[in-house]
Amino acid sequence: MDNVIVATRSHTHEAGASEEHAHVALPQHRHHFETEQQQREAGTFGMWLFLLTEIMFFGGLFMSYLLYRNWYHDAFVVASNQLSIKLGAFNTAVLIGSGFFMALGVWAAEVRKKGLLVLFLVLTTLLGLVFLGVKYDEYHEKWEKHHIPGAHFDVSEFVNPHAYGIKEEPLAPDMAQKTQVFFSLYFAMTGMHALHMIIGIVLLGWLTYRAHRGDFSSGYVAPIENFGLYWHFVDIVWLFLFPLLYLINRHPGS
Amino acid sequence: MSEFHDPANVVNPEHADHHIITPKTYILVFATLLAFTGITVGAAFIDLGILNPVVALGIACFKAVIVILFFMHVKYQSKLVKMTVGAGFFTFIVLITMTLTDYVSRAWGLW
Q1: B:23-82 residues touching chain A, CB 8 A cutoff
Q2: CATH number of domain containing A128
Q3: Beta-carbon pairs below 8 A across chains A and B
Q4: Choosing among B12, B17, B24, B41, which should be mutated to test the A contact, i.e. which has the most A CBs within 10 A?
Q5: Which chain B residues contact residue A237 at CB under 8 A?
Q6: DSSP A162
Q7: How far is B42 from chain A, CA to nearest CA, in Å?
Q8: Which of A9, A31, A247, B103 could form a disulfide with A243 if both were Cys (CB 3.0 to 4.6 A apart)?
Q9: Cross-chain Cβ contact B41/A7 below 8 Å
Q10: Which pLDDT band holds residue A30 (cuts at 50, 70, 90)?
């Protein structure tokens, strides 16, 4: 009998009907889970399985970057140096701040402080929007300089950098064309990252509304916690994008 | 779980006590992340040769690990969740390595 779970207080519906406290299905303890911990663990496990598929998705992009950076190293160096470290570092700090407020939001939900939870969710959203605003500015600059890969791509800054006051070695025309590979990967990687943030901000709006309604301040934390996992995962992707795209090509020898 | 007669402890095998991480920990992690962002930007402007990408990626990995352990609570999760996270990153590294061995060995000796 030692491997059999038996409720010491009867929970069967027949008995429950006659008990003073009828069976209440709490959102943090649905009837098909034995305990609240079990439901929570199942939720966390499921969320992590989803995040593993996301690791594989972004992993493919990182793999392409790794390979093409080795193949077209000179083109990647000069194209990468077109990005602003100042804006990249600022955005990294903004995103870390956003993740920090998200983490505090999970804490506020745990200790059932509704006002703080709403405040932290709003701050998370605001910093996320600041990040996207800076990203828009960076994209716009690329658009104006014709650095978007395609028929209108302009290699003149790469074949004749000194005419533009850029201290880089000029590239041969065929290698200069390969800067398009860098920008393709740049837009694919930061664009997919930004898309994840846009989806996250939409979800944050919905969660803020529900938090304001009081859904998450009576012990039901799972949606906030699992969304937090998603938001931190998107942060982590950026923690790798920033050094790979902005930083590691400052010194062409490396 | 006094609610159940469960001597084999099927319901909560990990004894995973629910742990609430305090804001103090979060502030420490936040400060560490900002500090290492500064360090990685500074390191990019020093010519370290082949070590530039190594340092940048090393710092990125360190930052990712503390985000995973504290912001994502993995340090306080059950072994099941820890194994899941570890298995994911391990599989990712295996895939990268196998893809690279293919590309590196295609033109072996022809360069």
Answers
A1: 23, 26-27, 29-30, 33-34, 37, 40-41, 44-45, 47-53, 56-57, 59-60, 63-64, 67-68, 70-73, 77-78, 80-81
A2: 1.20.120.80
A3: 169
A4: B41
A5: none
A6: G
A7: 10
A8: A247
A9: no
A10: confident
The answer to the question of residue A196 being in a domain is yes
Query: Per the CB < 8 Å rule, is A5 touching B70?
Result: no
Residue pair A182/A76 in contact (Cβ under 8 Å)? The answer is yes
CA-CA-CA-CA dihedral for A57, A63, A65, A66, to nearest 10: 160
Could you read off the pLDDT of B60-82 as tens digits, one per residue? 999 999 999 999 999 999 899 99
Asked if residue A253 is part of any domain, the answer here is no
Tally the domains of chain A. Answer: 1
Residue A25 covered by a domain? no
- Rounded to 5 degrees, φ, ψ at A226 are -70, -35
Complex prediction ipTM: 0.86
Measure B32 CA to nearest chain A CA, in Å: 10
Please give the average per-residue pLDDT across B98-108, as a whole number: 88
Is A7 a domain residue? Answer: no
pLDDT in tens, B11-57: 665 555 678 899 999 999 999 999 999 999 999 999 888 889 999 99
- In this structure, what token pair is assigned to residue A219? 């012990």
- Domain containing A78 equals 34-247
